[in-house]
Amino acid sequence: MAVSASESPLIPQPQASITLLREAVARIAPVALPTFTRGLSQAADQVRQGSDLLPLRRFTMQWAVYAHIQRHPRIAARFRELEDLAVATDNVEEARSAVAELGRILDAAHAAVARETS
Fold first, then answer.
1. C-alpha to C-alpha distance for 46 and 80, rounded to whole angstroms
2. What confidence score (pLDDT) does residue 7 get?
3. Residues of the chain above pLDDT 70, percent
4. Residue 2 has what DSSP assignment?
5. Residue 92 · residue 50 · CB < 8 Å
6. For 6, phi and psi rounded to 5 degrees?
7. Single pTM value for the model
8. Within a 10 A sphere around the Cβ of 42, how many other Cβ atoms?
């Protein structure tokens, strides 16, 4: 889903650092902070158990994508609507369509975050 020129994001896209992502989530989706904190704790535990930083990289990418979506109110609302539809409908085609659109939104967010971090 493309962002229209008339829709300004609520905040600039934060850099993929834990501190900046936490600040962004606190501003645009404070209800998600407990999930953010749990995910960070799990990623840190995985790093301590191994010698790879991949869990933290995955965590920061996941939350950078989340912030990218949530900072655009229209896209965030559509994303929530599609999530609800995908689990609530008994119509298989409707569920597939919702999941496909969710995938397109996520793909666009991943691409935007990758462009901004490169």
1. 29
2. 79
3. 94
4. P
5. no
6. -80, -15
7. 0.88
8. 12
pLDDT tens readout for residues 72-116: 999 999 999 999 999 999 999 999 999 999 999 999 999 999 998
Lookup: tokens for 79:
């994303």
Amino acid at residue number 88: A
Listed in sequence order, the residues at least 6 apart from 28 whose beta carbon sits closer than 8 Å to its beta carbon are: 10, 11, 67, 70, 71
Amino acid at 50: G
Report in angstroms the alpha-carbon separations of 21 from 40, 45, 73, 94: 11, 19, 17, 33
Phi, psi of 68 (to 5 degrees): -60, -45
Q: What is the rounded CA–CA span in Å between residue 88 and residue 95? A: 8
**What are the tens digits of pLDDT across the range 36-68?**
999 999 999 999 998 799 999 999 999 999 999
Calculated CA dihedral for residues 20, 23, 28, 33, nearest 10 degrees? 110
**Which residue in the block uniquely carries the two structure tokens 């606190």?**
26
